[in-house]
Here is the input.
Amino acid sequence: MADATDAPDVRPDWHALAPHEALRRLDSRSDGLDPGEAARRLEAVGPNVIPRGRVEGPLKVLFRQFTSPIVLLLIASTVVAMLLGKFVDGLVVLAAVVINAIVGFIQEYRAGKAVEALSRMVPHDTTVLRGGGQSTVPSSELVPGDVVALASGDRVPADARLLVVRNLRVDEAALTGESVPVGKGAEAAPGDAVLGDRRSMAYGGTLVTSGHAKAVIVETGARTELGRISAMIEQATDLDTPLTQALDKVGKWLTVAVLVVAGALMGISLLRGYPMADAVLVAITLAVAAIPEGLPAVITIALAIGVQRMARRHAIVRKLPSVETLGSTTVICSDKTGTLTRNEMTVKALWTPGGGYTLSGVGYEPEGALAASEGEALQAPPEDALTLARAAALCSDATLVHEEGAWTISGDPTEGALVVAARKLGLDVERARGEWMRLDAIPFESEHQYMATLNRDPAGGARVLVKGAFEAVLARCDIAEAQAAEVHGAMERMAKSGLRVLAIASAPAREGATTLEPDDVEGGMTLLGLAGMMDPPRPEAIAAVQACHEAGIAVKMITGDHPATAAAIGAELGLTTGRHGAVTGREIARASDEELRALAADSDVFARVAPEDKLRLVRILQADGHVVAMTGDGVNDAPALKQANIGVAMGITGTAVSKEAADVVLTDDNFATIAAAVVEGRRIYDNLVKSLAFILPTNLGLGLILMVSVLFFPVIELDGQAVPLMPMLPAQMLWVNLIAAVALALPLAFEAPEPNVMNRPPRRPGEPILNRFVVVRTFLVAALMTAAAVAVFQWEYARFADRLGHDLAIAEAQTMAITTVVAFQIFYLLASRSARDPIRAIGWLSNPSIYVGIGVLVVLHLGFIYLPPLQRVFGSAALDPLGLAVCLGLGALILPIITFDKWLRRRAHRDPLGPTTSGAEATPGPPRARHPHPGTA
Ligand code: ATP
Here is the structure.
């Protein structure tokens, strides 16, 4: 007998075999393998994963560090400096190149690995039949012979021969390029059929777009068609985002500008009588000192840290640019069930034509008592209530399980609630399911909003049972006009109190029927009654909605539920509906673009919404200038998720299709997590702005110091040689630029969110990161730094020139200048921790990594001042206590100056990161006022 696990090269034409023959060859059965056998096969054939294609190796990543224009410039500078005999300076520049490459390599390699690991964290599970039961296993553990269940939204986990098929359509674009989903069946295909015509097969990597099937896995991992073609190599992890691209552009311009200025400076220094070698060195130094080499590292690290932090808060970022977009989100469109609510349904009310009843108890505890809605306790449930509850339970797949002392449900919570309700009425659901054996079923789909089953009737014949959305079921029932008003009244009462209402109906089946088709449930049914179930909002969602409102972000709830139910739940969440209540999917479909715009601005609640309505809603909101985050879990949500600026998929309940279309996946399906991700997005952006406002002044300041010295400092005559007097040597400038800027800027990426992070409107999309705040701050701080360094140099030189002679005095004075700059940076770093608040408002100790950075710098710099080897390399000299104190004192001056600047800005409401909205503005006002239009804000 051919054994698929042992004969790697003989592949049966699986598609041409009959289902039972395929099973026989795989030594499997229609109810699957037993777990021991599955484990043995897994051992033999290996995991079901496609071997990864070419990933960039570490060498390549390292090599890339040497290809940027800036680094090439630095290398050229090294060579030139060496040729001119300036060995120390040449070596320092070379050290700069190497340090830069190492930092760049480490951060890129590790960030790449982190992002890659995160995108793989999105779980892919498969429902498999093993040992007579059904369970969910990671797709990687599937083996040939496993029998799996496929449903719409699933990604087919491996190549499989279909066994039982129900309306299955599969999107095989990944494999054949055919973009229209193809219908599938269990009948054998001709032996010579090409891949796209093998209708009896479902291939790994393709997507189930509708229907259900049972299939046996025939090939896994590298042996699947996808593995063989292996053209579908996972896309390389990309660390590019619009922000890094924009900054790259800025970097290029800056490089050109610096080169021009360096050339000019070289010309001027020659005119002023500098020796050639010194003039060239001035130009090189300017280039190295004024270009922010550490910036790319800081930015990528800030993004990577942010992505990891979001993952810890249950939001997995699949596409890096969305980290930035999150911070500018202006509208979040969210599903209701499970995201804003708990998805723990409890039936609270039943209605039958005979009367209304209430049910006590919450959750899945099958204890509870039935009472007439007038409040009178009932000894035994009346027959009509029992019939209703039994039909609802029979027409459900969920089961009630007792685990570790608590009751839980397995299956759909809506159905679980119905099963629990039947138990509360004293029905033995398992026994009823045995007596009323199910012959066939039409499963629930959001599109048609009902589920139907065909059950054998113990009294003879068979019955069709239907449960579903009120409108969907009522449309199938024969109802007398007199009764219709009563039914609608009962429904309205339940929905208005926030209950989800399901209607349940039945009809005798066709004579001898064993299968059920949609046509069988089109009409002629008898309404058994209604069940109203409660699904309370998540408490954290209520808080998160309020936080979003305070942050100027509108929240729109989009649900498949009835408008009255949706409006009631919306009100509990703090959402408002317009004059006409919740907007329905039908209204969206009928409205013109202009009308829809008005509806979207007027109401926060959208009910009975179909996936295509979602897509239109996103487009309209975007046309209005909004940045839209949209959640979705179903197959048909994929277009809306793709269209949204941030598509958010559900990690637990979402389909593979929705996860793949999404930018962010929530591992806890919780609305509050979206709000937390927005906070993270804003925080990352703020910290980048702070890093820029910290790094750029250093570069400009160093450039200015150099310019001042070339323009205004004398060239003195020593031993017959012209020696330009400079407040800082090139090697010293490089020291500051490389060590100080990077060691100090990195900790800013760990800074906590600004206190007002969620009390201000969203950032305008497209706003340049080099905004006025950064530019003004850069010039202010650079000017102060230059003034301090030059002044301290003059003072120290005057203090020692007579006593120590020129050489030693200049070393002292230069060490003073550079130490002042370092002190200045340390205190400016503290001031930069918050862009708008004084340090005490954010807490002196709230970001310990700042002090780690400062500690490292202080140790290195003390070495620079006092260690003889470093003194020889850098031309530095030991400072006396007075000198050290003067440096520290001057550096510390920046703190009160920046604090004063922040105070002025706060007073003028010119907050660098966006104005704080006061408490009064934050409480829900008229909807218009709460939806800031980014274009006009
Ligand atoms: P939301 O869009 O807020 O997440 P939802 O996803 O639960 O809500 P759907 O699943 O589309 O919305 O359900 C729409 C309607 O279909 C519900 O209001 C309910 O009346 C009905 N319904 C839901 N689940 C079932 C089910 N298992 N069987 C029959 N009818 C159902």
Notes: Confidence is low (pLDDT under 50) at residues 1-8, 231-237, 918-937. The longest strand covers residues 159-171. The pocket of adenosine-5'-triphosphate is lined by residues 335-337, 412, 414-415, 444, 446, 449-451, 467-469, 500, 502, 559-561 (CB under 6 Å). The two ends are 74 Å apart (CA to CA).
